[in-house]
Amino acid sequence: MSGQRLATIFRLELTQRTRSVAWYVLLGVFACLLLLVTVLSFLAFGGLRDQQGSAVFSTIVYITLLLIVLVSPTLSGNSINGDRDAATLAPVQVTLATTGDILLGKFLAAWVTGLAFVAVSVPFLVIATLAGGANAATIAVSLAVLVIEVGVIAAIGVGLSGILARPLFSVATTYLVVASLVIGTLIGFGLLGATMRTEQVNTYRSLDWEAYQGDDFPCMPGEEPSESYPCNDEKPLECGEWETYVNEVPRFDRVWWILAANPFVILADATPTTFDRSGYPVDLFGQIKAGVRMAQETPEAETSYDECSPPTVEENRTPEDIIGETTPSWFVGLGLQVLLAAGLLWWAWARTRTPARTLPPGTRIA
User: Are 160 and 347 in contact (CB under 8 A)?
Assistant: First the structure.
């Protein structure tokens, strides 16, 4: 593999991708969508004050990843077989460029093409950062993961374009693979978790509200009468009988690992989380991370709730507690994605190398 040959193929591939007017129109549409999302995000999170920048920043990063997921397969899914159909691949293969040079050059060009969309989002990310509340570690890690995910999607598209003979079929297959990671993991998590159910015994006791008339109701434990809450601190609590009922709960703790390969979950799980004073995340990264981490917890076999003695705020577990007590999975999911992309690239190399032993029927050589 030669750096000079690799640079030449990369430059030719990148020039071919960006020389059309449609490319710049696509970037313009992308910028308009991000502008709309930024404006709406500032309006939606206007009440967060010091945390507004964090919420807007995470929203823009997620929208950027979403749009790249929708666009990148089209840009990389026909890199090799498209050149084969246009009879431009064979002339390159008879030069000193090796199959590795060709494949890696096309992959890097597809990666940089996807990063162009990230570059378009930078001004909007800067605006969100200047709004305040965004943590430096959150910014650095989230952007790094975003760049890596763009590369993974580009590698999947280039790999499938070398494996499959028809450009349209390889683009469609790239969309299916990416959709399996983004949507398929969510569907599999939800359906499998719902089918794995277990019984849970619940005991419950409520106040006997019929024993009180008008506004003459007692104060709950730890509460005192006030103008906004005119309870009677001298009146005793009248509690009802304990009731028990059994229901079935889904076991998402057995299938949460399916979400590990989801690009959006990887982005959230890898990004450091910033919490407010109450222990709740201030951005989408932390909210998604908390949701995934909650799925790791085994549901209790027995639960109990006493309305006569409700739990205090200190007894309730916050998302910060849950995240601190559970296991991160982003490195496993990212590792699986990298293995998938590397495997597809290797397979594409085996199918593209010359001299070719066998080719699909009807494949054009030159």
Answer: no
Q: Could you read off the pLDDT of 251-301 as tens digits, one per residue?
A: 888 898 999 999 999 999 999 988 888 888 888 898 999 999 988 888 888
Per-residue pLDDT tens for 116-137? 999 999 999 998 888 776 788 8
Neighbours of 199 (CB within 10 A): 9
Rg of the chain, C-alpha, whole Å: 28
d(CA 332, CA 329): 5
The rounded distance, in Å, linking the Cα atoms of 27 and 121 is 10
Helix, strand, coil percent values for the chain (each to nearest 5):
65, 10, 30
220: left (phi over 0), alpha (psi -120 to 50) or beta: beta
pTM, whole model, 2 decimals?
0.84
- DSSP labels for 200-230? EEEEEE-B-GGG--TT--BPPTT----SSS-
Q: 3-state class of 178 per DSSP? A: helix
Rounded distance, CA 328 to CA 256, Å? 11
C-alpha dihedral over 304, 310, 315, 320, to 10 degrees? 90
Give residue for tokens 């162009």: 116
Specify the residue for token string 């981490």: 293
DSSP state of 182: I
